[in-house]
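Figure 2 data, in text form.
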Amino acid sequence: VAAVLALRRHHPRTRRHAITYAIWTSGVAGMAFDLLILFVFQVLYGFVYSMLGALMAGFMVGLYFGGHYGVGVAEEEAARRIFLFFEVKVLLLLPALFLIANALGAHIAVIPQAAVFGILFLFAATSGIGVGAQFPLAATLVSGRSSEGVAGPLYAADLMGGWLGGLVIAILTFPLWGLLGTVVLLIALKASSLFGLLVSVGEVKIHGSGAP
């Protein structure tokens, strides 16, 4: 996908497609963070049910604050820079999750359970902020002024990414490849959307009457 975007960087719809693809990959990553954090906790302690709601709540809190922040960015140039920042942040959080899980696993005998839960809760909230901020920023970039007429397709891309991420990670990649293999796949996916944004996000002005 990134290669296609690079080849079509001057096409008037390339920027819209790059942003929508980034939202789709963020939907995948968001569901991945949610599931993998739960899986990590379950692997470390053998149970998850009593903590499931609280860990998911951490991610949802992050989504709220990220979305609230993104809505407040109305200027297109600022939205472009911040969107790229959060794209990089989500990408970097993927290997960070693997490193944190390994560190916790190596010292699980000496780290209190409450501390492990706190670390994973904070990570869930941090990843939620990164994913949540991108949606309103993407709407600003695609429409220029408001999310009218673009929120639907972006939301559909986000939901489709979350649905596919939940399905594939839960029943395929994590059981077969483990945490490392799943994280590597997600890094490749998110890196492709970042590359597509870097080669297209500044190429076309899509706003007002000039929108395709």
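Caption note: The chain has six helices and no strands.
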